């Protein structure tokens, strides 16, 4: 089984799908000759040509709107936002067109929007955001957020084949930092949660880069800690969440996103509503406070959940 | 036969591409649109149409003429004052009434109201209220046609107010850069809700087309044949790979923005001036000069509408048990071809 970085796995997924299905094509800013701001599509224009690796004007609403138009005609566009932050300029097309068209008119919108997201490298307020919760609140959009190279490939292939709009949150800080075995060829990863590490005393729930923070933070704790990698935010795997919480009775939920109404807030609500009797302690959240992501490394590290923050939260809860 | 006197009253023939049957078909579509909307307004006042009600009284020629030029495999993103487009593509009137009343047999099964519908089986996408979002959808459809090398085109309608928003620019720019087979119909009906043109833009938007690298053409939006001819030419251009066209359909919104709007902000003289240009009256005069029995067309439309209302009233209310259904698709469910009655497609 080949070893790939998270970034290579994303490229590999697109290459596989484009080779197998001529309906699949790419749209985005600087993705062609330049190969993308992060080089995810490096070399694609040579293999697939400029028609299927389409450099677009700087216009996020047009990228998403035109992807929707092409999809209702039977194509399967993969649209790249150069940074997930810029999806705010395409918000309306996603929320009001992509998310509502099937419910209103029975017309399916088979688009995948890739959203390089997350902080940790001094990207500042406009290149570090985790905007997934904006879209969790908008019915009709699926949202996935892989943490491993294997899942990055499988979830992206599933997203491209899904006849619905799927937002693919790819964490920039994992691009070259995370490596792993990735099956060759084509495979789909379901939009369900995955147990990243089994445990019995406490559950840490996370997704994306925070899965790695959780694994590192709890590796040497005095207690058996389960780490649940959500992988998919919409649909949210409620049964996997409840099963783990019922087993361990203690839960820490991590969000790299700003804490207000974040994905973790919804997870906490589900646990409060459906697993209250199973809990042996308060639901604990570790999340980024509600400020823009600052530029300075010291400031940024002070707001993004760090390994020590998670370790301390878990230690306190284990002792509760 | 046209008499000498009648000929002077008849507007000059604007196109050689229409048979008498085509011309009658245009009248019929406009009468159907006006008849359905007038009847629906009555249903609204009787409390049978929930929400509000929007109509296109006086603007019937814009959608009728433009849609008449579109082929079965073309695609339409339709605005709320363009009911004739749906009618020409083949949506049955009873389903339109069911749509207005929020019934289970409406095009959106009660999920959306008013003219916010598009029958995907007729190649139509319904409007989104964030105007002009649909310009980008039509542009994306045209992009798909170009990618696959297909001789097809997409068309969309939007109002004068829409030209102020960014999606107008993004769609015009992208369509111009890629020379896409798309037709943009700027339905200039003088008011965006209550806002007149001189508060909407400093430069007539038709002049902006040149800035995006393609032609802008103004047409008499109260003449279905003028609209047909301009759109037919724009379609030819699109199919030939020469790129988009911006068409300004100059018309007037003769009713308020919606049922609640008494339109006090519009000078009476302006309404009266446009009343004299009513598109249905003009088409009737034109056809009578050709010896067509327009009263028979009216009678047929009236009967069909009454039958449609009766049938729609029998349609059940949607079942609340189903309200969560249909958020996500299990299988692709795409656009299909619609009716294309123009004689030019049959020869």
From TrEMBL, chain A:
Keywords: Oxidoreductase, Thiamine pyrophosphate. Its cofactor is thiamine diphosphate. One of its GO terms (molecular function) is magnesium ion binding. Residues 4-177 form the Transketolase-like pyrimidine-binding domain. Pfam families: Transket_pyr, Transketolase_C. This is Alpha-ketoacid dehydrogenase subunit beta. It comes from Solirubrobacter phytolaccae.
